[in-house]
Design goal:
endopeptidase inhibitor activity; Kunitz_inhibitor_STI-like_sf; signal; mainly beta; 8 strands; Trefoil (Acidic Fibroblast Growth Factor, subunit A); Prot_inh_Kunz-lg
């Protein structure tokens, strides 16, 4: 399987692309997410998610832990820029479409080897402290879930 590197900038800041900015949100919904080589990001393929700023931006995303806690595992960014982190696979809620689109409801899952200290799922989920602080972070332990706006934590 060919492993590509996906830019954090391209994957998570895609709403500020020239096409969506100039032609409106409706046009952006049909757009595709591209990797750093300009190829379409495909469901089921392995990608490394790393900083768009090489050198000063840090390394790739990986499985990590908060200090003093073994579970749940969280998504962290590696410090050295040469560390790619752990590969991920994107799955599209629309299983008939293999291409990840700007409007896709996707699941992100780390794949590959990991230690067995914490046996949670490697599917990402958004967690938070609630309304007063509005702090959010991504941790592992999500499930495939159902598509839709009510599945932010799966």
């Amino acid at each position: 399987m060919n492993t590509a590197t996906a830019s954090l900038f391209l994957l998570f800041i895609f709403s500020i692309t020239q096409s969506s900015f100039l032609f409106g949100v409706a046009n952006a919904t049909d757009g595709v997410v591209l990797d750093v080589d300009g190829d379409e990001v495909l469901a089921g393929e392995r990608y490394y998610v790393d900083s768009a700023v090489w050198g000063a931006g840090g390394g790739g995303l990986a499985i990590g832990r908060e200090r003093g806690r073994k579970c749940p595992e969280i998504v962290v960014q590696r410090l050295p820029s040469f560390d790619k982190g752990n590969p991920v696979v994107f799955s599209n809620a629309d299983t008939s479409d293999k291409v990840i689109r700007l409007s896709s409801d996707v699941r992100v899952k780390f794949v590959g080897p990991r230690d067995r200290l914490c046996q949670t799922s490697t599917v990402w989920k958004v967690q938070g402290e609630g309304v007063p602080s509005r702090k959010r972070w991504v941790e592992l332990g999500g499930s495939k879930g159902e598509a839709g706006c009510d599945t932010v934590e799966s």
